[in-house]
């Protein structure tokens, strides 16, 4: 636990009464970041004011400040925590002036809606005391390192999320889930990440409060303190964006890499690709309100656009983020990229052959991008207890993994939590996480009970349309002008033919032979007059995850069940006799 974070959060005690606990963060979070920035800017405050007086042009001023201080952000106000309290009557106006005069990169106070809180604090006669409490906390980088500040800020965010528990799952992914995702994401790169001075980029298009970015950075720095991980993120919830960007500022990361806005309709990093991408997008949230914009982008961007492979149902936008991240991986010629994304079960199998979801799976599998899928325990997240899966994508797979997908059943690796948080009552311990990562590392040698390695073709199939002749009143086939029998739409049926039927290893190229063999063996013996309408044949892909781990459990012997029933009946009769006296 962060002692500093606990101390800062204790200031919230002053807010009791006018503020409810779930509102404390609205005051504590922005004031913490304001005080941290105040301390960071203090040594060069006079220099920046002189430069501001000399250069009116904001772009020129930014260049000059960067040259003089090495920082990408600044503040030109005459106020700071050192003199704010000297003018008791003007505290509200002076504090507003202070936050107004940050450079454009520091826009977090606007998204915290902090001016509204300043007025509320003033009205409740709490502003002076709260500012006074923050003014005595020394958050200078020489006293509080970026790492310690990050821990403190993370503690405050966690307290805020706990207080607002009913909605925390919307913008807060549990640390144990993130740790597993990060370990799997970096698993293939662990050796490379330890090289001296290595530089990597990490991107989260649904950054939330920045927890996934922070933990990934922590993981990399634990292995290599000299490594540099440039963090990029986009978030469309104003408060989550403000928290995320504040976290980046508190830890000394470049705040300009965190963008506000909707990734699906306005990609803030449209021309960039990244070494690592990760995301926990919302599940089952419709995108009807963005459908027009997204469809227009798909049509105008052509075959190389991010949504080119297909669009999912407008009732669930998860697979849009899946496509977006596949598009964001660094090109294999430049070293390649990896993706880790958490989704529920529907992207594994929803939609039949030819549908948008199936076409997305087809694109990912035929381009050999899916490296592994890990089933997580249920009840892992704050806002849902449903089954969830981590997908790992890689566009430059290790030679052993090419053409393969590893399925890992991690549903049994969990520990019951002492205290339930929302829907979350299970967590993945460090030991359990290590076991799941070992299954991944062991690949083909992993415990077969929990890991399966399959070829991409194992997930492909053709949906064939089987027709039967239309008969006239005499029971004779009705034919067209060319003498071919007309199909009876009422007898029309479809069959799914796996690529691997009959042991075929030819994949999609074996279509004619495999479909014919299937028809001859599975259809023709039962309906000899049937035929296939080949023009209607479609290619589909689905990943029936649970089927691959299904284990048949025989029912109990009948004699054992009868014995149990007799025992229960005897108990009931005994109770009835006691009631009757």
From TrEMBL:
Sequence segments annotated as region (Disordered): 472-500
UniProt keyword Transferase, yes or no: yes
Enzyme Commission code(s) on record: 2.1.1.72
Start and end residues of each N6 adenine-specific DNA methyltransferase N-terminal domain: 4-134
SUPFAM superfamilies membership: S-adenosyl-L-methionine-dependent methyltransferases
A GO molecular-function annotation: N-methyltransferase activity
Segments forming domain DNA methylase adenine-specific: 147-457
Biased composition (Basic and acidic residues): 472-495
Catalytic activity of the protein: a 2'-deoxyadenosine in DNA + S-adenosyl-L-methionine = an N(6)-methyl-2'-deoxyadenosine in DNA + S-adenosyl-L-homocysteine + H(+)
Domain of life: Bacteria
Any Pfam family: N6_Mtase
Keywords for the protein's UniProt record, in alphabetical order: Methyltransferase, Restriction system, S-adenosyl-L-methionine, Transferase
GO biological process, one term: DNA restriction-modification system
Recorded family membership: Belongs to the N(4)/N(6)-methyltransferase family.
Protein name per Swiss-Prot or TrEMBL: site-specific DNA-methyltransferase (adenine-specific)
Species of the source: Janibacter limosus
Organism placement in taxonomy: Bacteria, Bacillati, Actinomycetota, Actinomycetes, Micrococcales
């Amino acid at each position: 636990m962060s002692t500093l974070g606990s101390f800062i959060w204790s200031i919230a005690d002053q807010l009791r009464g006018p503020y409810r606990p779930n509102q404390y963060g609205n005051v504590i979070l922005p004031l913490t970041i304001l005080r941290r920035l105040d301390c960071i800017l203090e040594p060069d405050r006079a220099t920046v004011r002189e430069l501001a007086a000399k250069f009116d042009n904001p772009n020129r001023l930014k260049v000059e400040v960067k040259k003089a201080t090495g920082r990408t952000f600044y503040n030109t106000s005459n106020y700071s925590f050192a003199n704010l309290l000297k003018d008791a009557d003007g505290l509200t106006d002076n504090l507003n002036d202070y936050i107004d005069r940050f450079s454009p990169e520091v826009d977090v106070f606007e998204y915290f809606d902090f001016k509204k809180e300043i007025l509320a604090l003033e009205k409740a006669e709490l502003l002076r005391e709260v500012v006074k409490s923050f003014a005595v906390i020394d958050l200078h980088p020489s006293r509080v390192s970026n790492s310690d500040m990050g821990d403190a800020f993370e503690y405050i965010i966690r307290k805020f999320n706990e207080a607002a528990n009913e909605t925390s799952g919307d913008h807060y992914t549990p640390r144990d889930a993130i740790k597993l995702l990060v370990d799997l994401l970096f698993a293939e790169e662990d050796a490379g990440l330890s090289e001296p001075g290595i530089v990597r980029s990490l991107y989260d298009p649904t950054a939330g409060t920045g927890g996934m970015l922070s933990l990934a950075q922590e993981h990399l720095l634990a292995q290599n303190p000299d490594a540099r991980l440039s963090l990029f993120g986009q978030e469309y919830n104003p408060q989550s964006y403000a928290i995320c960007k504040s976290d980046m500022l508190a830890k000394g990361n470049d705040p300009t890499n965190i963008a506000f806005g909707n990734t699906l309709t306005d990609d803030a990093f449209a021309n960039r690709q990244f070494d690592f991408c990760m995301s926990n997008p919302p599940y089952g949230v419709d995108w009807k309100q963005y459908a027009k914009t997204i469809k227009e982008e798909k049509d105008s961007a052509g075959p190389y656009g991010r949504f080119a492979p297909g669009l999912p149902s407008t009732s669930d936008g998860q697979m849009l983020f899946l496509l977006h991240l596949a598009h964001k991986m660094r090109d294999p010629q430049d070293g390649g990229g990896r993706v880790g994304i958490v989704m529920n079960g529907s992207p594994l199998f929803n939609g039949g052959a030819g549908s948008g979801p199936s076409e997305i799976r087809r694109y990912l599998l035929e381009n050999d991008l899916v490296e592994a899928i890990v089933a997580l325990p249920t009840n892992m997240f704050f806002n849902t207890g449903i089954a969830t899966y981590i997908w790992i994508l890689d566009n430059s797979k290790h030679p052993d993994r090419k053409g393969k997908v590893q399925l890992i059943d991690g549903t049994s690796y969990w520990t019951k939590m002492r205290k339930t948080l929302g829907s979350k009552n299970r967590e993945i311990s460090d030991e359990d996480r290590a076991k799941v990562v070992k299954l991944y590392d062991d690949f083909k040698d992993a415990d077969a009970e929990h890991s399966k390695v399959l070829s991409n073709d194992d997930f492909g199939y053709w949906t064939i349309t089987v027709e039967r002749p239309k008969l006239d009143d005499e029971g004779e086939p009705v034919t067209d002008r060319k003498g071919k029998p007309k199909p009876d739409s009422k007898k029309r049926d479809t069959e799914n033919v796996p690529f691997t039927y009959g042991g075929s290893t030819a994949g999609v190229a074996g279509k004619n032979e495999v479909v014919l063999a299937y028809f001859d063996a599975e259809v023709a013996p039962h309906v000899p007059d049937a035929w296939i309408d080949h023009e209607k044949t479609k290619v589909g892909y689905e990943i029936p995850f649970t089927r691959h781990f299904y284990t048949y459990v025989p029912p109990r012997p009948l004699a054992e069940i009868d014995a149990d029933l007799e025992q229960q009946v005897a108990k009931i009769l005994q109770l009835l006799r006691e009631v009757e006296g």
